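Whiteboard transcription, Tuesday session. T.W. wrote the C-alpha coordinates on the left side:
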Protein backbone atom coordinates (compact mmCIF):
# COMPACT_ATOMS: atom_id res chain seq x y z
CA UNK A 1 0.00 0.00 0.00
CA UNK A 2 1.41 3.35 -1.01
CA UNK A 3 1.71 5.96 1.72
CA UNK A 4 0.94 9.66 1.69
CA UNK A 5 4.03 11.28 3.17
CA UNK A 6 4.90 14.74 4.43
CA UNK A 7 8.65 15.28 4.01
CA UNK A 8 10.42 17.57 6.52
CA UNK A 9 14.02 18.50 5.73
CA UNK A 10 16.46 21.30 5.06
CA UNK A 11 20.02 20.04 4.71
CA UNK A 12 21.75 17.80 2.15
CA UNK A 13 21.41 14.62 4.21
CA UNK A 14 17.70 14.43 3.32
CA UNK A 15 18.09 14.80 -0.45
CA UNK A 16 18.92 11.21 -1.55
CA UNK A 17 15.87 9.83 0.28
CA UNK A 18 13.71 12.69 -0.96
CA UNK A 19 14.79 11.84 -4.50
CA UNK A 20 13.93 8.17 -3.96
CA UNK A 21 10.52 9.03 -2.51
CA UNK A 22 9.77 11.32 -5.46
CA UNK A 23 10.23 8.36 -7.83
CA UNK A 24 8.64 5.68 -5.64
CA UNK A 25 5.10 4.38 -5.31
CA UNK A 26 4.58 6.70 -2.35
CA UNK A 27 3.10 10.18 -2.63
CA UNK A 28 4.80 13.28 -1.26
CA UNK A 29 1.82 15.43 -0.35
CA UNK A 30 3.77 18.31 1.22
CA UNK A 31 7.39 19.34 1.66
CA UNK A 32 8.17 21.22 4.88
CA UNK A 33 11.46 23.09 5.21
CA UNK A 34 13.01 25.95 7.12
CA UNK A 35 12.12 29.51 6.05
CA UNK A 36 14.54 31.53 3.95
CA UNK A 37 17.03 33.30 6.21
CA UNK A 38 19.77 35.85 5.65
CA UNK A 39 23.10 34.03 5.95
CA UNK A 40 24.77 37.13 7.40
CA UNK A 41 27.29 39.69 6.25
CA UNK A 42 27.63 38.33 2.73
CA UNK A 43 23.88 38.82 2.25
CA UNK A 44 23.40 35.45 0.61
CA UNK A 45 20.50 33.16 1.33
CA UNK A 46 21.43 30.33 3.69
CA UNK A 47 21.85 27.00 1.88
CA UNK A 48 18.74 24.82 1.67
CA UNK A 49 19.32 21.77 -0.57
CA UNK A 50 15.84 20.41 0.12
CA UNK A 51 14.20 23.61 -1.12
CA UNK A 52 16.45 23.51 -4.19
CA UNK A 53 15.36 19.94 -4.95
CA UNK A 54 11.72 20.87 -4.41
CA UNK A 55 11.88 23.13 -7.45
CA UNK A 56 11.86 19.94 -9.52
CA UNK A 57 8.61 18.79 -7.88
CA UNK A 58 6.11 21.12 -9.46
CA UNK A 59 3.12 19.26 -8.01
CA UNK A 60 4.32 19.36 -4.38
CA UNK A 61 3.62 22.37 -2.20
CA UNK A 62 6.42 23.80 -0.04
CA UNK A 63 5.58 24.93 3.50
CA UNK A 64 8.24 26.87 5.45
CA UNK A 65 6.89 28.00 8.83
CA UNK A 66 9.23 29.65 11.36
CA UNK A 67 7.83 27.26 13.99
CA UNK A 68 6.28 23.95 12.94
CA UNK A 69 4.68 23.45 16.35
CA UNK A 70 2.21 26.35 16.31
CA UNK A 71 -1.52 25.54 16.09
CA UNK A 72 -1.63 27.14 12.63
CA UNK A 73 1.23 25.00 11.31
CA UNK A 74 -0.20 21.81 12.78
CA UNK A 75 -3.57 22.61 11.23
CA UNK A 76 -1.81 22.86 7.86
CA UNK A 77 -0.27 19.42 8.41
CA UNK A 78 -3.61 17.96 9.44
CA UNK A 79 -5.20 19.22 6.24
CA UNK A 80 -2.96 16.90 4.21
CA UNK A 81 -4.54 13.81 5.77
CA UNK A 82 -1.15 12.16 5.39
CA UNK A 83 -0.11 8.73 6.62
CA UNK A 84 3.39 9.61 7.76
CA UNK A 85 5.96 12.32 8.46
CA UNK A 86 9.45 11.66 7.11
CA UNK A 87 11.92 13.91 8.95
CA UNK A 88 15.61 14.28 8.15
CA UNK A 89 18.07 17.13 8.69
CA UNK A 90 15.15 19.48 9.34
CA UNK A 91 16.34 21.66 12.22
CA UNK A 92 13.30 21.79 14.52
CA UNK A 93 12.12 19.43 17.28
CA UNK A 94 8.54 18.24 16.71
CA UNK A 95 5.95 18.42 19.46
CA UNK A 96 3.61 15.57 20.38
CA UNK A 97 0.72 17.35 18.58
CA UNK A 98 2.87 17.74 15.47
CA UNK A 99 3.71 14.03 15.44
CA UNK A 100 0.01 13.23 15.86
CA UNK A 101 -0.89 15.10 12.67
CA UNK A 102 -0.49 11.93 10.58
CA UNK A 103 -1.97 8.44 10.92
CA UNK A 104 1.34 6.67 11.60
CA UNK A 105 3.25 9.51 13.27
CA UNK A 106 6.77 10.25 12.05
CA UNK A 107 10.06 8.59 11.24
CA UNK A 108 13.47 10.22 11.41
CA UNK A 109 16.60 9.32 9.46
CA UNK A 110 19.53 10.03 11.79
CA UNK A 111 23.20 9.99 10.82
CA UNK A 112 24.51 7.64 13.50
CA UNK A 113 24.14 4.14 14.89
CA UNK A 114 21.79 5.09 17.70
CA UNK A 115 21.75 5.31 20.66
CA UNK A 116 25.28 6.68 20.09
CA UNK A 117 25.63 10.28 18.94
CA UNK A 118 22.20 11.71 19.53
CA UNK A 119 22.03 15.35 18.51
CA UNK A 120 22.77 17.84 15.78
CA UNK A 121 26.26 16.74 14.63
CA UNK A 122 26.45 12.92 14.79
CA UNK A 123 28.87 12.35 11.89
CA UNK A 124 31.33 14.97 13.11
CA UNK A 125 31.48 13.60 16.65
CA UNK A 126 31.73 9.99 15.48
CA UNK A 127 34.80 10.90 13.41
CA UNK A 128 36.20 13.03 16.25
CA UNK A 129 36.08 10.04 18.59
CA UNK A 130 37.79 7.79 16.06
CA UNK A 131 34.86 5.54 15.15
CA UNK A 132 35.77 3.23 12.27
CA UNK A 133 32.20 2.01 11.71
CA UNK A 134 29.56 4.67 11.11
CA UNK A 135 25.97 4.37 10.03
CA UNK A 136 22.41 5.57 9.96
CA UNK A 137 19.31 4.71 11.97
CA UNK A 138 15.64 5.22 11.20
CA UNK A 139 13.54 5.67 14.33
CA UNK A 140 9.83 5.97 14.95
CA UNK A 141 9.70 9.42 16.46
CA UNK A 142 8.79 10.49 19.98
CA UNK A 143 8.96 14.02 21.43
CA UNK A 144 12.30 13.03 23.05
CA UNK A 145 15.19 14.01 20.75
CA UNK A 146 16.41 10.95 18.79
CA UNK A 147 14.89 8.70 21.46
CA UNK A 148 12.31 6.62 19.56
CA UNK A 149 12.44 2.88 18.79
CA UNK A 150 14.74 1.78 15.97
CA UNK A 151 13.11 0.57 12.74
CA UNK A 152 16.25 0.03 10.62
CA UNK A 153 20.02 0.43 10.77
CA UNK A 154 22.71 0.40 8.10
CA UNK A 155 26.48 0.77 8.55
CA UNK A 156 29.68 1.35 6.60
CA UNK A 157 33.42 1.44 7.26
CA UNK A 158 35.15 4.83 7.37
CA UNK A 159 38.55 5.22 5.73
CA UNK A 160 41.41 6.18 8.10
CA UNK A 161 41.78 9.61 6.48
CA UNK A 162 38.16 10.10 5.38
CA UNK A 163 36.64 13.36 6.59
CA UNK A 164 33.16 14.06 7.92
CA UNK A 165 32.53 16.06 4.76
CA UNK A 166 33.38 13.02 2.63
CA UNK A 167 31.39 10.61 4.79
CA UNK A 168 28.17 12.63 4.88
CA UNK A 169 27.08 11.95 1.27
CA UNK A 170 27.98 8.27 1.62
CA UNK A 171 25.85 7.99 4.75
CA UNK A 172 23.01 9.94 3.14
CA UNK A 173 22.89 7.41 0.30
CA UNK A 174 22.99 4.59 2.83
CA UNK A 175 19.91 6.11 4.44
CA UNK A 176 17.75 5.38 1.39
CA UNK A 177 17.81 1.62 2.01
CA UNK A 178 17.11 2.14 5.72
CA UNK A 179 14.05 4.26 4.91
CA UNK A 180 12.82 1.72 2.37
CA UNK A 181 13.04 -1.02 5.01
CA UNK A 182 11.21 1.14 7.54
CA UNK A 183 8.36 2.02 5.17
CA UNK A 184 7.83 -1.68 4.45
CA UNK A 185 7.31 -2.24 8.19
CA UNK A 186 4.94 0.72 8.50
CA UNK A 187 2.81 -0.31 5.54
CA UNK A 188 1.59 -3.33 7.53
CA UNK A 189 1.56 -1.67 10.97
CA UNK A 190 -1.75 -1.28 12.78
CA UNK A 191 -0.66 2.01 14.36
CA UNK A 192 -1.24 0.69 17.88
CA UNK A 193 1.03 -2.26 18.67
CA UNK A 194 4.69 -1.83 19.56
CA UNK A 195 7.00 -1.35 16.61
CA UNK A 196 10.77 -1.38 16.29
CA UNK A 197 13.54 -2.05 18.78
CA UNK A 198 13.78 0.15 21.88
CA UNK A 199 17.09 1.97 22.23
CA UNK A 200 19.45 0.87 24.99
CA UNK A 201 19.64 3.84 27.39
CA UNK A 202 23.03 2.69 28.69
CA UNK A 203 24.57 3.26 25.25
CA UNK A 204 23.46 6.87 24.79
CA UNK A 205 26.11 9.43 23.86
CA UNK A 206 25.61 13.00 22.72
CA UNK A 207 26.55 14.85 19.52
CA UNK A 208 25.83 18.53 20.25
CA UNK A 209 25.87 21.31 17.69
CA UNK A 210 29.42 22.36 16.78
CA UNK A 211 30.91 25.63 18.02
CA UNK A 212 33.64 27.65 16.34
CA UNK A 213 36.08 27.49 19.27
CA UNK A 214 36.01 23.69 19.26
CA UNK A 215 38.25 23.81 16.20
CA UNK A 216 41.21 25.06 18.24
CA UNK A 217 43.91 22.35 18.31
CA UNK A 218 45.29 21.31 21.69
CA UNK A 219 48.76 19.96 20.92
CA UNK A 220 48.85 18.08 24.24
CA UNK A 221 46.41 15.59 22.73
CA UNK A 222 47.82 12.64 20.78
CA UNK A 223 48.64 12.82 17.08
CA UNK A 224 45.86 10.31 16.35
CA UNK A 225 43.32 12.41 18.26
CA UNK A 226 44.38 15.56 16.42
CA UNK A 227 44.14 13.78 13.07
CA UNK A 228 40.59 12.74 13.95
CA UNK A 229 39.73 16.30 14.96
CA UNK A 230 40.94 17.67 11.61
CA UNK A 231 38.90 14.98 9.80
CA UNK A 232 35.83 15.64 11.95
CA UNK A 233 35.60 19.42 11.72
CA UNK A 234 35.63 19.79 7.93
CA UNK A 235 34.22 21.92 6.46
CA UNK A 236 33.16 23.74 9.66
CA UNK A 237 34.36 24.93 12.13
CA UNK A 238 37.70 23.82 10.72
CA UNK A 239 40.71 22.91 12.87
CA UNK A 240 43.04 25.81 13.55
CA UNK A 241 46.20 26.73 15.40
CA UNK A 242 48.85 29.45 15.32
CA UNK A 243 52.38 29.20 14.03
CA UNK A 244 54.58 30.86 16.65
CA UNK A 245 57.94 31.54 14.98
CA UNK A 246 60.89 32.16 17.27
CA UNK A 247 61.55 35.53 15.63
CA UNK A 248 58.24 36.76 14.26
CA UNK A 249 54.53 37.38 14.81
CA UNK A 250 51.97 34.57 15.28
CA UNK A 251 50.09 33.45 12.16
CA UNK A 252 46.71 31.72 12.33
CA UNK A 253 46.48 28.55 10.24
CA UNK A 254 43.61 26.24 9.35
CA UNK A 255 44.81 22.65 8.87
CA UNK A 256 43.14 20.79 6.01
CA UNK A 257 45.15 17.60 5.55
CA UNK A 258 47.34 15.93 8.15
CA UNK A 259 48.63 12.47 9.03
CA UNK A 260 50.29 10.70 11.93
CA UNK A 261 54.03 11.04 11.30
CA UNK A 262 56.62 8.30 11.61
CA UNK A 263 59.16 10.79 12.97
CA UNK A 264 59.75 10.66 16.73
CA UNK A 265 59.39 13.80 18.84
CA UNK A 266 62.76 13.25 20.53
CA UNK A 267 61.49 14.68 23.81
CA UNK A 268 60.36 17.98 22.27
CA UNK A 269 57.45 19.63 24.12
CA UNK A 270 54.00 19.30 22.58
CA UNK A 271 53.49 21.82 19.79
CA UNK A 272 57.17 22.02 18.80
CA UNK A 273 58.21 21.82 15.15
CA UNK A 274 60.61 18.87 14.82
CA UNK A 275 61.01 18.96 11.03
CA UNK A 276 59.86 21.01 8.03
CA UNK A 277 60.32 20.15 4.35
CA UNK A 278 58.28 20.33 1.15
CA UNK A 279 56.27 17.23 2.07
CA UNK A 280 55.21 18.19 5.60
CA UNK A 281 55.68 20.32 8.68
CA UNK A 282 56.02 17.81 11.50
CA UNK A 283 54.92 18.87 14.98
CA UNK A 284 55.24 17.05 18.30
CA UNK A 285 52.07 16.27 20.23
CA UNK A 286 51.19 14.73 23.59
CA UNK A 287 51.81 11.36 21.96
CA UNK A 288 53.65 11.05 18.66
CA UNK A 289 53.99 13.64 15.90
CA UNK A 290 51.52 15.14 13.47
CA UNK A 291 52.53 15.83 9.85
CA UNK A 292 50.81 18.84 8.26
CA UNK A 293 50.48 18.51 4.47
CA UNK A 294 47.87 21.13 3.52
CA UNK A 295 46.96 24.32 5.32
CA UNK A 296 45.39 27.74 4.93
CA UNK A 297 47.00 30.89 6.37
CA UNK A 298 44.72 33.65 7.62
CA UNK A 299 43.33 35.62 4.69
CA UNK A 300 44.78 33.23 2.09
CA UNK A 301 43.63 30.24 0.08
CA UNK A 302 44.26 26.61 0.97
CA UNK A 303 47.75 25.50 -0.13
CA UNK A 304 50.22 22.64 0.00
CA UNK A 305 52.99 22.87 2.59
CA UNK A 306 55.63 23.30 -0.14
CA UNK A 307 53.88 26.46 -1.36
CA UNK A 308 53.55 27.81 2.19
CA UNK A 309 57.26 27.23 2.90
CA UNK A 310 58.26 29.23 -0.17
CA UNK A 311 56.95 32.32 1.58
CA UNK A 312 57.41 31.43 5.24
CA UNK A 313 60.49 29.99 6.92
CA UNK A 314 59.31 27.38 9.40
CA UNK A 315 62.22 25.77 11.25
CA UNK A 316 62.72 23.14 13.92
CA UNK A 317 62.18 24.70 17.32
CA UNK A 318 59.29 26.92 16.24
CA UNK A 319 56.03 26.30 18.05
CA UNK A 320 52.38 25.79 17.19
CA UNK A 321 49.70 26.73 19.70
CA UNK A 322 47.89 29.64 21.32
CA UNK A 323 49.60 33.08 21.14
CA UNK A 324 50.50 34.50 24.52
CA UNK A 325 49.26 38.01 25.39
CA UNK A 326 51.94 40.65 25.11
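and on the right, the sequence the group agreed on:
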Amino acid sequence: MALRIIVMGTGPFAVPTLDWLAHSEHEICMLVTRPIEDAGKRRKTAANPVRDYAEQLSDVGVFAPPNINTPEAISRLNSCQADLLFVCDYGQILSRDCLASTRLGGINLHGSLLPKYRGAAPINWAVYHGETTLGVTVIHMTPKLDGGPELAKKSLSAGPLETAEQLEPRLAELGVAAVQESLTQLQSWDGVSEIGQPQDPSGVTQAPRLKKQQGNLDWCRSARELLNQVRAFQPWPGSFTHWLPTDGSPLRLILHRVSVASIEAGGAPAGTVVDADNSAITVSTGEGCLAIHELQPAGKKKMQVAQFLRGKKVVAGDSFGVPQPK
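Someone added at the bottom: The first strand starts at residue 4 and ends at 9.
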